[in-house]
């Protein structure tokens, strides 16, 4: 084990300890959840990063996603023409790309993957996968079937994962609801994952496999962190039980495609609205902070970055070191991880792509760890979306959801960090999973 791998391994305990310090009940720890949750992460990461067969499987999945993504671009190129061509590409008519345009090149993939997931649901492939993961979580960790089902669903979908446990929401405890929110914010939807792949693929050829790996790793991490932050003090109704996912199946395949595509459009509109609002507000906040910073820096004779990104970078710097990121890259990665809490992972992944394109990182492991640590909806806007979404399905639990929302955000952030530390524990410079 190399020095930085050891730092990442110790970082696992650092993040678990941080969660314990923030726990609502430090004496009530479910050690079965903690041991099996971290154990599942370590076993999966060991298989993917170290075992040759696991690495080959990883690369196989990565290639499948890349080829599927290339198919997704066919529709966007037909509709948007040159606007949909990625930088450096030339179409059949000999027209060259106009450069990277987020709305026309990356966002259309969300519609395609949303429709594809809807097809997999209709064919009963996705429900079987979800039930398999849910059964594993329930039996090994001895938690409720409802929260296991939601965690398993979040490996593949986003806010709609709460629909799979809709009949059980009104009977869930505060700790269970915290787990529902945490698993939602600590993972990413497959439809949005396609967007991240498109954003980073040029600089990071194996990004698809890493993001899928991160999504799987983050599910047990979310359960671990949520149960440490808000331990169970009641008896869940579905404790130790396996439940079936609740969902409304379409009448035919074409209805599934239409509904999936329409859901993708709504998701894109939501992302655009969020980016327009949040980035504008951040720019306004930076303008205000910049004035204060200029005065303080002049008075003190030192330089402090008084942007939101800069200040969050200072806060997340020790956590970034605990992830196993080398000090030479820690300042850059800390700012990216920090900004995710405000401007969402969409902007954070785009900034990571820019950094990679400019070769600003000195160590390959820094980009890999950042990829895993960023793979989640752990930000303020997402917290509001998930609390509001689950409250709409279970109005009686609105007060409880609002109360545990911020704790769930803390748990989700630490879960993403835990996933990054696990990845850093096994990743080495010569790994086949680096690519490029």
Radius of gyration equals 21 Å
For the secondary structure, the number of strands is 0
Overall 3D shape: globular
The helix tally amounts to 16
**Structural domain tally:** 1
The stretches of 5 or more residues where confidence is low (pLDDT under 50) are none
Protein structure class: mainly alpha
Mean pLDDT: 86
Fraction of residues in β-strands: under 5%
Question: What helical percentage do the residues reach?
Answer: over 70%
Distance between the termini: 24 Å
Give helix and strand order, one letter per element, not per position.
Answer: HHHHHHHHHHHHHHHH
Main beta sheet strand tally, sense and closure? none
Model description:
- The chain is mainly α and 436 residues long.
- Helix content is 71%, strand content 0%.
- It has helices at 3-21, 31-49, 52-80, 102-105, 108-122, 125-141, 145-154, 174-186, 190-200, 207-229, 253-300, 308-322, 327-357, 364-374, 380-393, 398-426.
- Helix 13 crosses helix 14.
- The radius of gyration is 21 Å and the shape is globular.
- The two termini are 24 Å apart.
- The model has no long low-confidence stretch (mean pLDDT 86).
